[in-house]
Amino acid sequence: IGETGLGYHYDIPKNKQIESLEIHLDAASVYKLPCIIHMRDAEEDMIKILNSTFQEDQSNEEERKTWFLGN
How far, in Å, CA of 59 to CA of 14, rounded? Predict the structure, then answer.
């Protein structure tokens, strides 16, 4: 999928960013592709979205999910 994420630092509506991120995560899951996730000033929403996405998609236990939060 490539890079996707949330950047609340910029003047782009949060709901549009969240919608785009969720579409990218769904596509990555369906096609078993990796994505690189970035975030800026959006930690709380990102954690909620990732937790929700990973809880819903537990069909493939071999899938690896690695998180790095911070600078």
Answer: 29
| Overall average pLDDT of the 1-16 stretch | 93
Average pLDDT over residues 21-36: 89
Residue 8 exposed, middle or buried by CB count within 10 Å (0-12, 13-18, 19+): middle
**Contact by Cβ (8 Å): 47, 21:** no
| Angle ∠(52,55,57) on CA atoms, nearest 5 | 105
With vertex at residue 2, the alpha carbon angle to CA 10 and CA 39, rounded to the nearest 5 degrees, is 30
How far CA 50 is from CA of 11, 53, in Å, comes to 23, 5
Tell me, what amino acid is at 23?
A: I
